Each structure stands twice: as C-alpha cells, then as structure tokens.
TrEMBL record:
Signal peptide start and end residues: none
Record's keyword annotation contains Transmembrane: yes
Chain segments annotated as transmembrane: 60-83, 90-112, 147-164, 195-214, 220-239, 246-266, 272-291
Protein name as it appears in the record: ABC transporter permease
Gene Ontology CC entries for this record: plasma membrane
Gene Ontology MF term list: transmembrane transporter activity
Chief localization: membrane
The keyword Oxidoreductase is annotated on this UniProt entry: no
Length: 308
C-alpha cells in the first residue's frame, strides 16, 4: 500500500507541475487586469516548438529555448490585442486557442508525419536528489524530478513571493489590476506592466508545454495539453487570486488526475471515464463558489484607456 501511496503522490505532483507553471504566470497577469484564456494555446505552442527544436537539433536544451521563444511571440501577439488594441480578452483567448490547436496539428503532420511512427525525442530524465528521494511519500514526489521539474518548483515559488504585498512589484501589479486609471495618475506604467505579465505568462506556459513534451513523454501528439491550460485558469479562480491557494488548487487537480492510474491498486473500482473527468468536476466545484467566496481584481478584463 505504501508503494501505491508513493506512486499516487509522485504522479500527482508530476501532473501538477505544468499547472503550477502556467497558473503562476496567469495569476500575475490576472492580478494586473489581463485575463489570458489563451494559456492553453501558449502551452500547446510551447510543446510543439520544444518538440520541433529538440527534433531538429538533437538537444532538449535547444528545445526549451525554442519553446520559450514561441511562447514569448505568442504572448506578444496576445498583449498587442488585449493591451494595445483593447480587444475582448475572452474572445481573443478562445480564438487563439483554436488557432494554436489547428496550427500545431498541421505542423505535427508536416514535421513528424504519422504520430504512431514518431521516434522518441531528446528529453530530460529524472535526477533523484541523493538521500532526499528516499523519504517516504515526499521523496519520490519532490526529489525525483527532471531539470524542468525542479525549475518549475523554483519559478512558482519565486513568482509567489514576488506577488507578496511586501514587494514593490507585487504592489504595482495589484494597483494596476484594481484601478488602472488611478495607478496611471500615480505614475505607474500601466501598459508596460500589463505587457510584462502577459509575456511572463507566455514564458511560463511555454515551459509547461515543453515539460509535457520533453520531460513526460519525449514526444509530441495532437492536443497534448488536453485542456490543462483551462485548468490553470480555473486554479487561479479556485485559489481566489492568491498565490499559495492557487498552488494548492494545482496540486489537488494533479492528484485527481493521478488517481485515475492509482485507483485500481487502492481498491477503488471506479469507471475510467469518471476518473478522467474527476479533475474537471473539482474545477467546477471550485469555480461554483462552494469553496468560499472570492473577489476578482476590479480591473480584470477592463481595457485601459488613459483619460477614459
């Protein structure tokens, strides 16, 4: 039974890592007033670009750099639409996701051909931390990650600390997300701040996609993200736009995904379709208000127009 619990915990953390990365960037963006429903598309683009870069160069490191470049380009276009042109953030996000799905599917056919014949891509293997990886339950979950996995822990912790109200950057982000006009009158650069957080979301989401392709499966498949990007947005809502509760929501979603593989060994004879949908059931409960009331940033999705 202990081995099953270890596997459930390690699988839950492993599946939560892409969520942790994507939601940490999205949390900053939403706290600054920009809703990126395009996180799914950013992740998918990052996964494809990472796989393409690794395939072309034979290096997983080059794949990560390619993924970051693609994620930043995607985010720059999103910021242009949302921040500069003040387009509807929900419409542009959904449209961007649809375009990303179509483009990566077509690109995959051109580059890899039939997915069933795709050879394994260069990727990252787990690097156990001596002694620490032997700790029951927590050891396999936290200390048997790939380089990208450890980077995910560091990035999410850093961004959570950055959002602390004790930091200048955290205060600036919150001011822009609550009342952009007042923040502008006080001298804060509203548009550059919003551009910065959207670009950061693109980078973290692209890394999340690269983690899926290069750390988890060492391959790229159509729609490899499978809705994880939407769960990242939901995690921010479930976490009430606060850093640590958002990270906790990501872990809960990851454990729910892991349960579908560990359920038989735990003696839980549940149907496979039910277990697959379990993370999304948790997501619906989270956004329904059953986990407590929350208040979104006042300027979320509100375009900034100086003097408006």
């Amino acid at each position: 039974m202990s081995a099953v619990v270890d596997e459930l915990a390690s699988g839950g953390v492993r599946m939560a890592l892409p969520l942790l990365l994507a939601s940490s960037g999205e949390l900053l963006s939403e706290r600054a007033g920009v809703l990126n429903l395009s996180v799914e598309g950013m992740m998918l683009t990052g996964a494809f670009a990472g796989a393409a870069g690794a395939h072309a160069s034979g290096s997983a490191g080059v794949g990560v750099l390619t993924a970051l470049a693609a994620g930043l380009l995607f985010a720059a276009l999103q910021a242009l639409l949302s921040v500069t042109l003040r387009a509807d953030q929900i419409v542009t996000g959904i449209t961007a996701n649809a375009l990303a799905l179509g483009a990566t599917t077509y690109g995959s056919r051109l580059l890899f051909g039939d997915g069933s014949r795709q050879s394994a891509l260069p990727g990252f293997d787990p690097l156990p931390v001596p002694a620490l990886h032997a700790i029951p339950v927590l050891g396999p979950a936290l200390f048997e990650q790939t380089v990208l996995g450890y980077a995910a822990f560091a990035i999410t912790a850093l961004l959570a600390l950055t959002l602390s109200r004790r930091t200048t950057w955290g205060l600036a982000v919150d001011a822009v997300g609550e009342d952009a006009l007042t923040a502008d009158r006080c001298g804060l650069p509203v548009r550059p701040i919003r551009y910065a957080v959207v670009l950061l979301t693109g980078a973290t989401s692209a890394l999340a996609g690269a983690h899926l392709a290069l750390s988890e499966v060492h391959a790229f498949s159509d729609n490899i993200t499978g809705g994880i990007g939407y769960l990242a947005v939901v995690a921010v809502i479930a976490g009430r736009w606060r850093a640590w509760p958002t990270l906790l929501a990501c872990l809960v979603f990851g454990l729910a995904q892991s349960l579908q593989f560990a359920a038989p060994a735990l003696g839980l004879h549940l149907s496979a379709p039910l277990l697959v949908t379990l993370p999304y059931v948790f997501a619906l409960l989270a956004v329904s208000g059953l986990v407590g009331r929350s208040r979104a940033p006042s300027a979320l999705t509100v375009p900034f127009l100086r003097g408006g």
